[in-house]
Amino acid sequence: MASCIGALDLGTTSNRFILFDRDGRIVGMDQKEHAQLFPRPGWVEHDPMEIWENARVVIRHALQKSGIPPADVAALGITNQRETAVVWDRKTGRPLHNAIVWQCTRTDDICRQLIAEGGQDRFRDRTGLPVATYFSGPKIKWILDHVPGARRAAEDGDAYFGTVESWIVWWLTGGPDGGAHVSDVTNASRTLLMDLRTLDWDAEILKVMGIPRQMLPRIVPSSDPEVWGSTRAGGPMGARVPVCGALGDQQAALVGQACFSPGEAKNTYGTGCFLLLNTGTAPIASRSGLLTTVGYQFRGQAPVYCLEGSIAIAGALVQWFRDNLGLIGSAPEIEELARSVEDNGGAYIVPAFSGLFAPYWRTDARGAIVGLTRYVTKGHLARAVIEACAFQTRDLVEAMNRDAGMPLAHLKVDGGMVVNELLMQFQADILNVPVIRPRVTETTALGAAYAAGLAVGFWSGLPEVARNWAEDRRWRPAMSPAAREAACAQWRKAVQRTFNWVD
C-alpha cells in the first residue's frame, strides 16, 4: 500500500521534490537551484531544459536519500512559479526561447500599446487581471513577435505554450512521445487569456494578442482523479506514478494552509510576497488594485476564487542585499544584523526593481533607498530590507479589507522568510493582527501533494486535510498606534518617490 505522495515544487530559484506522509509530514526531500539569467536590465530568463533536468535530479535524489521505493508513491503533484512562459517545439521538446520569467519587464511596450487601445482594465471583467508585464499572455506575444519561426510554428500547431507546470507535466508524461499538454485552472488564470467564469481561453483576447489557440494547453481542474497521465517507467520516478494534481505556487500554499473557508487568508514570503484571501465560489472584482484569481478547483466541483495581492520583490531583496551589496554572507545573517540596531534609523527601501505590483501597478517605478543620513549603518539598511516586506504586505491587507468588506482577523504565513522572527513580529505590529506560523512551513509543496492525494483517495477529503494543519507559533502586535501610523506614513512617502522614474 502506498505510503506517501510526491510533490514537485518548481520555484523561481530552485526545484524541490518533497515526499509527504498521511499526516502531512516530510519524509524525504531534495533541492537544486537553477540559473537566473539577466540578458538586459529588467529582463529575467530561465533555461527550460535546466529546469527539466533539475526536476529529474531532485526526484531521483529524494527517493534515493529517503529509501522510499517508487511503488510507495501514490501520486505526484506539481506546484510552480506561475506566470513564467515557455514556448517549445512539440516534436523535439526543444524550447524556442528561454523561459520569460514572471518578473521580466520586456513586454512593457506591448502592455503600453494594449493599455493605449483599451485601458489597463480592458480585460479585467473577464480575467480578473489588469494589463501588466507580470502575466503570461504578453510574454507569449513577445516570443511570437521576436523569435524567428515561432509564429509560423504556433500557427501550424508545431509549437506549444505552457507555464512551468505545463512544461514539466508534458515531459513527465512522455514529452514528444504523447506527453499531456495541460494546464491547471489556477495557472491558466494567470495568463491574462482565461475567462474566470467559463474557465476557458477567451477567443477575443487571443485575437487581440495574436495568439493561436492551438498552441495553448487544455485547461483542467487542479485535482483530477481521471489523471492527466503517468510518469514513464524509464523516467526519473522509475515507475508509473499518476500525475494528477497541480496548483500555482500561491494557490498551493492556500491549500497547504487549509484556507478552505471564505475569509481565510495566507501570505507567502518567498522570492516575491503573495497574499491570498478565499472569497468562495463567486469571483469578487477588485476596486483597490488587487487581482481576482482561481484559488483551486477539484474535479466535479465549482472553482473557489480568491483576491490576491502580489509583491514582486520580498526574499529577492535579501538576495540583492547579500549578492549585489555583499553586506551579508548568507540570507539568515540579515536578522542578526538587523537586531544590531533598534530601528531603521529613518531609512526605507522600496524594492521596485521591476516596477511595483499590487496595489499600485506602476511599471514606471524603480527601486529607491530614502531617508539616508550619515547616522544610517548597514544594520539600519538590513532592518529596512526586512521591514519592506512587512510594509508591502500592509499595503495589500488595506486593499483587501476594502474589497472584501471585512477586516482581516489574523494572518497565516509561510515561505522561506517566516523563520525570520524579527520580520514576523514587525509584521504583526504593522498589521495590528496576530501572525500565525504553521508547524509545517513547506505549505506550497504540501498543497500540491494534497491536490494529487485527494485525486487518488490518499486523503478522504478536505476535513482530513484540514486536521493535518497545526500551529507552530503566533506573534501578537506590540506596537503603539501612534508609532504604527508614523512608520506607515513614512513608508507611503517612500513609495511615492519611486514613481515616474522610467519615462
Please give a structural write-up.
It is built from 16 helices and 23 strands. By secondary structure, the chain is α+β, with helices and mostly antiparallel strands. A seven-stranded mixed beta sheet has the order 17-18-16-15-21-22-23. Strands 3-2-1-5-14-13 form a six-stranded mixed beta sheet, with helices on both faces. It has a two-stranded antiparallel sheet with strand order 4-7. The radius of gyration is 22 Å and the shape is globular. The termini are far apart. Strand 2 (14-20) and strand 3 form a beta hairpin.
Q: Helix/strand-derived class?
A: alpha+beta
Main beta sheet: 7 strands, mixed
Q: What distance lies between the first and last C-alpha atoms, to the nearest angstrom?
A: 62 Å
Q: Report low-confidence residues grouped into runs of 5 or more.
A: none
Structure summary, number of beta strands: 23
Strands of the widest sheet, in order across it, are 17-18-16-15-21-22-23
Please tell me how large the radius of gyration is.
22 Å
Helical content, roughly?
A: 25-40%
- Mass-distribution shape: globular
Mean pLDDT: 94
Strand content: 15-25%
Tally of helical segments: 16
Fold topology:
Elements lengths: L3 E7 L3 E7 L5 E8 L11 E2 L1 H19 L6 E8 L5 E4 L9 E2 L7 H11 L5 H4 L8 H11 L3 H6 L3 E4 L1 H9 L9 E3 H4 L5 E2 L4 E2 L1 H7 L8 E3 L8 E2 L11 E7 H8 L8 E5 L3 E8 L10 E6 L7 E8 L3 H9 L9 H6 L9 E3 L17 E3 L7 H27 L6 E4 L6 H11 L3 E4 L4 H13 L6 H7 L2 E5 L5 H17 L6
Parallel strand pairs: 1-5, 5-14, 9-12, 15-21, 21-22
Antiparallel strand pairs: 1-2, 2-3, 4-7, 6-8, 10-11, 13-14, 15-16, 16-18, 17-18, 19-20, 22-23
Helix pairs in contact: 1-6, 9-14, 10-12, 12-13
